[in-house]
Amino acid sequence: MNTANIIMLASASLPGSAPHFAGAAQATRAVARTVAQSATQTAVHTSSGTSYPIDIWGLLIALAMVMVASGLSWLMHLGIGKTLLWSACRALVQLCAMGFIMGYVITSGNPWLVLVLVCVMLVAAVQITLSRAKGVPKGLAGPVLLTLVITMLLMISMVTELVVRPRPWYAPQLVVPLTGMLLGNTVSALAVGLSRFYESMKERRDEVDTLLALGATRWEAARPSVISSIRLGLLPTTASLASSGIVTIPGMMAGQVIAGGDPLNAAKYQFVILASIAALTLLADTLIMVMVYRTCFTPDDQYRETPIVEHKKK
Asked: What whole-number distance in Å separates Cα of residue 175 and Cα of residue 152?
């Protein structure tokens, strides 16, 4: 029995004091409602945690740490000090710009803005992939873009519609960060895989010529290089899957926890991201290898020392 009920009983048993105690009961019920609301708000605040925003001084201190590392590079004559500092400044500007853009897109809730932003990210991913890959022929922008579009559409559709199921389906706060995380890992995997494939084909030149002379097809001759490149591209992903939760706390989970999110829910999201990255990396590496392995061969099934991307004539 709460305090308001006790006062109501007392007012009914004592003659002449009903108005006084009725007013007290109303006041008590108001206080009780206020206390209950306060307790509810406190519980929500406790369950959601507390975020710790970073001010301008925090960013400057972080940049100062990079400057110290750049200074050490200069003292040791490593030759990477300027590159390191420039990359850090560029990352800071790009991340802040993306933060403002994402804030505007999320606030607007316009699906066309989400689509435009994703398309810009895809085009930038193609450029970054080709700039990171070493020893690749010119003309691979088309195959890389096609690979990213197919794999990203498939994976984002599966995650948003089958796993998270947001409303609306194009929820910017989910689609845009998810696209960025998946693209970042896919770009690295594609760059490593392409570099390894062409390097392996050069190392296996005599073996490839022998296989072709014995009647092997172009795919059979290139298959060992394809397998080694896909395995190398998957290596960071498999290492992350094996060490997550025990050795490391991945970025998405750590970010949600630091921002005050529920740790268990953050762990679920992180697993979904890691599983998506693993599937996407294998799919993207396999697809790009199927499209580019022919660049190492002539139409007469001979090994081509300088890979060339051939375009079909209309």
From this structure: 11
Q: For 92-110, what is each residue's pLDDT tens digit?
A: 999 999 889 988 988 888 8
Cα–Cα distance, 52 to 259 (Å, whole number) = 7
The tokens describing 103, both together, are: 């804030």
φ, ψ of residue 244 to 5 degrees: the values are -65, 135
Give the span between the Cα atoms of 60 and 69, in whole angstroms: 14
β-partners of residue 199 are: none
Whether the link from the prior residue into 168 is cis, omega within 30° of 0, is yes
Could you list the beta-strand ranges (E) of the chain.
none
Kindly state the DSSP code that residue 163 receives in the 8-state scheme: I
* CA 246/CA 251 separation, integer angstroms: 14
State pLDDT tens for residues 130-140.
988 888 888 88
Q: What is the pTM of this model?
A: 0.72
Q: Say if CB 307 and CB 215 are below 8 A apart.
A: no
Determine the Cα–Cα distance for residues 170 and 41; give it in Å rounded to an integer.
30
Distance CA 68, CA 75 (A): 11
Q: Which of 44, 168, 185 is nearest to 106 (CA)?
A: 168
Whole-number Å distance between alpha carbons of 6 and 2: 7
